[in-house]
Design a protein that fits this description.
Blueprint: H1 2-10, H2 12-17, H3 19-36, H4 43-50, H5 54-61, H6 64-74, H7 76-92, H8 96-114, H9 117-128, H10 134-161, H11 170-191, H12 200-213
């Protein structure tokens, strides 16, 4: 699977040149994989849903395994965007009184993103197929939840270096913050796919509690 991930990366430019077909295939494959899983979803069904030929699917991705990897790894772009936003926002903070509002906003967005139905659906799919694609599951974790957690830790560390927060162990603080924000909610949501996501008021409560407990309120 490591080799498969490398091939997905190396052909990114080729796939971008066929953007309309690629987007249609990925969209159709995502919906079908989420609804039926990897094993029960055939390339002919994906091609029909994308309104392309089966050969086009093979030309774009090679086989169903590579297409599945592209779908899973494509989702990590959201985490990368959040990480870039978080870094830029915290770097712009210059006064202690501005730290709280900045952290509260970013924690709110982080929680809402993790608990969004679409993100949860992909997480369930990755977990379900982890036995078949262990390297892909590990790479998804590295690029999405793992990368975001590291970005938060790095941001807190830089704030501490500038004397704007009192944090002695950024990695531990980031991990504690993540669990307090959405650990219990995520655990419940993974086993109750029919449950609605938390509303704005609930997220605000989670954020206030988490920041207060870790000493960042």
């Amino acid at each position: 699977m490591d080799e498969l991930i490398v091939r997905i990366e190396s052909t990114a430019g080729e796939e971008r040149r066929a953007e309309p077909s690629r987007v249609a295939i990925v969209r159709a494959a995502t919906e079908l994989f989420l609804a039926h899983g990897f094993q029960a979803t055939g390339t002919d069904r994906i091609a029909a849903a994308a309104a392309v030929s089966k050969q086009t699917v093979y030309n774009q991705f090679g086989d169903k395994r590579r297409l599945f990897a592209a779908v899973v790894l494509g989702v990590t772009a959201t985490a990368e965007a959040y990480g870039a936003e978080l870094t830029a926002t915290l770097e712009a903070v210059e006064r202690r009184e501005d730290v709280g509002p900045a952290l509260r906003l970013l924690a709110h967005r982080w929680t809402a993103a993790v608990l969004a139905p679409g993100v949860l659906a992909v997480r369930r799919l990755v977990v379900t197929e982890a036995g078949r694609f262990p390297d892909l599951a590990a790479e998804y974790h590295r690029r999405a939840p793992g990368a975001t957690l590291q970005t938060v830790a790095t941001g807190l560390g830089r704030l501490a270096q500038r004397g704007l927060v009192d944090v002695t162990d950024p990695e531990r603080t980031a991990a504690d913050l993540a669990f307090l924000l959405f650990g219990a909610e995520l655990d419940h949501a993974m086993f109750h796919p029919e449950a609605p996501p938390p509303d704005e008021r609930r997220i605000a409560e989670l954020v206030d509690h988490a920041l207060r407990v870790v000493g960042l309120a």
